[in-house]
Amino acid sequence: MRRTLVLQKTxxxxxSASTILVLFSLAFAPLGQTSTANGVRAxxxxxxxxANLARKIERVETGLLPPAILKGETPARMRxxxxxxxxxxxxxxxxxxxxxxxxxxxxxxxxxxxxxEPVTPETMFQAASISKPxxxxxxxxxxxxxxxxxxxxxxxxxxxxxxxxxxxxSEEKVTIRRLLTHSAGVTVPGFVGYQAGEAVPNLQQILEGxxxxxxxxxxxxxxxxxxxxxxxxxxxxxxxxLMEVTRIPFPQLMQKTVLQKLGMSRSTFQQPLSPELxxxxxxxxxxxGEAIKGKWFIYPELAPAGLWTTPTDxxxxxxxxxxxxxxxSNQVLSTAMTKQMLTPQIxxxxxxxxxDGQGPSARFGFSGANVGFKCRMVGYMNSGQxxxxxTNSQNGAELSMEIIRSVAAEYGWPDFHxxxxxIAIIDPRVYDAYxxxxxxxxxxxxxxxxxxxKLMSQATGQPKSExxxxxxxxxxxxxxxxxxxxxxxxxxxxxxxxxxxxSREYQARKIK
Length: 512
Description:
The chain is an alpha+beta fold. Helices cover 31% and strands 20% of the residues. It folds into three domains: 2-61, no CATH class; 82-419, Beta-lactamase, CATH 3.40.710; 422-510, Lipocalin (Beta Barrel), CATH 2.40.128.
């Protein structure tokens, strides 16, 4: 008995003074009383955790932050529901990852503008380009199984359709590694989808750019491996490759290879959705808040754009990558392959994922933009933190970032904080030279106007915003993560604007 008491006293000193009485009372209490005390303590801990989590959620919901603040200014924290109204976004769903686990998930708003059906964490959204990293995981699993090779000419595995050879492929070849990192020289950046009632092309028609496909033929027009250029077309090639190698339809292949293994039970690559799944799917909306006819567009380009899912399911995807990298879970990929997936190959492109930051800031992610749907996914490599935000609006990209900045502030992330900027004093007459239209991409125009002493910008399908000067040629937006640098030719005429969004720069030629 004496030796037992000595051991108990030694253990007691390792705890705070507030727990000493509890430990002693449990040590000498009858068994029934000990069990009851344990139950009471467990309930108290659960209630404390729940109350603390509720406060965290409330702070995230009321702490949305802008991308930029003026030097010396305290950023105004905004309410999620108010910002949803501002952006004419009927539905938002998010999932927050903390310490390598899903800490909470919530849905806000309604499935469709004017409707009453509420959004829940089980509501499905189009993941758009976030389909690409999920597809990449399936590709890499087949590589590990020896069915594919990262650095072999894909034409050696393609049978029913092959990438046409030309002068660009005479020496360098299209490989899986290059397709995954958008460096294969393959055309077609993205896809516009097919509205209700429109004819939907099959995969061969998409690859060849034949009616009713709306996109051009997928070809190579840059030497493979020579540069980065975003290509959804490259992932359509991967879609064809996976089906030819496995002889399994793509949705079933993805279900078997990735979704089922990760417990992503509210996810599918089926296009169109079955009536059962469509009953709890968010409808897409135009920038002015009007629901899309037929609720959403259909994307037969499954690998780059066809995933329907929830933030909770994508959080499971993020968590698996975080754990697999550390050797704590290998449900789909080995630790070595996961590390390859997270290693920059060209610029900040890993194998299907974007990779940024160093040390505590090291993170991976991707964003998606289908018609009527915008979403974003972020996961930290070392801290096990992350978030997934999905919206059903053309305006959802900026709203998603405001939410992510709120999560970052609440959870103490090292990144995603508002940028502090200084407004320069500029003669408004300088603005006259900047007025005009700038082509960011075919059909996507930035219109710059002057309203009184203010310079305004509006991109196709997006709200108008004031541009604030940092210098005579450099401007920024307070309500979007964008910087604009106007470029003049040798005669002093404005011919271009360079747009910096995050880590990407886009060059827009002045056309009017």
